[in-house]
Amino acid sequence: MLNNHLEVLKIYHSVWNVVKTRYEHPIRDMLILGFILFIHTLLSVAVPYILKEIVDQSKSGTTQLEITQLFTWMNLYILATAYALGWLLMNLLNHVQGFLSANLQTKFKIALLHGSVQQFFKTTFAEQKKIEVGVYQTDILRGATSFGTITYVILFVLIPIIFQILSMVWVLAQSIALNYALYFMIFAFVTFVLNIYFTAKGNDIFTAMYDAQNQVGQFFVEKIQANYDIKVNGAQQYEMNLYEKRLNHYKNEMVNSYRKLAWIMAIQVFFVGAFLLTFMLFTVYLFKHQNVTSGDFVLISTYIIALTMPLLMVSQSIIHLKGDFIAIEKFYQYFNLETDQLKLENIIDQPVFYTFKNAQLYLGKNLIQNFNLEIEKNKIYVAIGQTGIGKTSLINYLIGLERIEAGQLFYKNIEISQQFSENIFKEIAVVSQMPMVYSGTLRENLIHNSPYHYKDDELKEYLSKFNLINLLEKNNLSLDDDLQHIYKSFSGGEKQRISIIRALLKKPKLLIMDEPTAALDEQTSLEVIQFIRNQVSTIFMISHANYAIKYADKVINFDELIQQDQRSEDDF
């Protein structure tokens, strides 16, 4: 049990460190909120005491009209004014507290969302491929929210209530009797502890609920992304039947979970109600026997009623805390995945970009022994071969997504066999097999991560060269207008050309392209390749197009390469 609690604290501390990377002054904001809560708690104790004094003074039948006593504390006018001002300030602080707590939790959430995406980008390509997008999105959003909830409940709900109870005990000890105050404290804390105990002992009702929710999210994202394939195959009803099964499973898990939650809440309400009943009856008994004044009766009643709502709120908060801790555990599991460890070595210019020396690597499912290849400056390389044979795998080694099994791989002077260098990205650009256009403006899509500044005329010239200027004209857009939903309707060819422009604007020394003209007709492809040749002197390209081979200084035939490797193994 202790180990579990220590592990939870360790995870919380780790997530807190993620928060601090993006949230500049969390401690300062928490202290401000804590101070507001401290004043609010003092007022919640003081205002009922002022009401008690008003009742007792009004019952005494005395009037204080003398000038000398006009401003004394026991003047009813002073008491009434203090009560009204205290009530006003307490409620104003309540709204300020609500704003500050929402602000604090929002900043926590934003910091964690930023940190989680940044961590995802650092995660190795192999680990990224295992992550389900729908599950990941749900886990991250839920975990980012839960961290703020945990922090708020523990620091700004549980601790203030304990302080509030102790303050009430002190006032009761001064106003009535120490014994009565101690009884009040014991009953209040017993109620408080029992609530926590029964919640902590309760079964984990959140994991199954979260898993069912993740399944629904995973299915939703997967099927929405595959909408074209589902539609053209007339599989809508089939997929909806599957979706209905997942929704029913989710519904059943939610109903069972909330049934258990309702039962736990009923137990906790019972304890709070027992506390309320016990002390109200006890106070009536003392009042009937004239052991307490009318003011004391009002004070005690107000305190008891004032505690019932916070105790119920604590009950609800503690119940959900278990689910929140599970949520941050699921959130933090993505921070335990293997990450890319990038070098920052200086690159020394050399006549060869990449060098494979007796490398052992996988091309598709084929393990290649003693692979040797040099990608030299000012040359065009075209890799050909049947689909699925491993051409894209070779690109993945070049850009650091995968590591060779043995041997050596160099980028100029830097060995990148097992650790890639971040500085390489300053010299290369990549056009992937699946070109992307993102939400935002067309300028943002074109510039992307280019370190260079481009004027509007220069960008439009590139668009004209690639027959894309009509994207602006037909939609009546400028370079800085949001593409909104328009980008989703871009054709594969338009996306591919935008992706190529994006790479060229980076002014790379080496351009790596995976099927860059697959979505283009032959005439457009020839124009695009010729333009690329004029912009970049060294190109490594995968292509099935015969016309691309005409531009090659060297053709890498993967079919022959793998056959040769297999013959070598047979000879061995």
Could you explain the architecture of this structure?
About 2% of the residues have low confidence. The protein has 2 domains: 325 residues, ABC transporter type 1, transmembrane domain (ABC transporter transmembrane region fold); 220 residues, P-loop containing nucleotide triphosphate hydrolases (Rossmann fold, 3-Layer(aba) Sandwich). The chain is an alpha/beta fold. Strand 7, helix 16 and strand 8 form a beta-alpha-beta unit. The longest helix has 53 residues. The protein has 18 helices and 9 strands. Helix 5 packs antiparallel against helix 7 and helix 6 packs parallel to helix 10.
Please give a quick description of this structure.
With 572 residues, the protein is α/β, with parallel strands linked by helices. 63% of the residues lie in helices and 9% in strands.
- Output the helix-strand order: HHHHHHHHHHEEEHEEEHHHHEHEHEH
CATH class of the largest domain, named: Mainly Alpha
Question: Which percent bin holds the helix content?
Answer: 55-70%
Largest sheet: 5 strands, parallel
Q: Could you state the CATH homologous superfamily of the largest domain? A: ABC transporter type 1, transmembrane domain
Total of DSSP H or I helical runs spanning 4+ residues: 18
Subcellular location: Cell membrane
InterPro entries: AAA+_ATPase (IPR003593), ABC1_TM_dom (IPR011527), ABC1_TM_sf (IPR036640), ABC_transporter-like_ATP-bd (IPR003439), ABC_transporter-like_CS (IPR017871), P-loop_NTPase (IPR027417), Type_1_exporter (IPR039421)
GO molecular function: ABC-type transporter activity; ATP binding; ATP hydrolysis activity
Protein name: ABC transporter ATP-binding protein
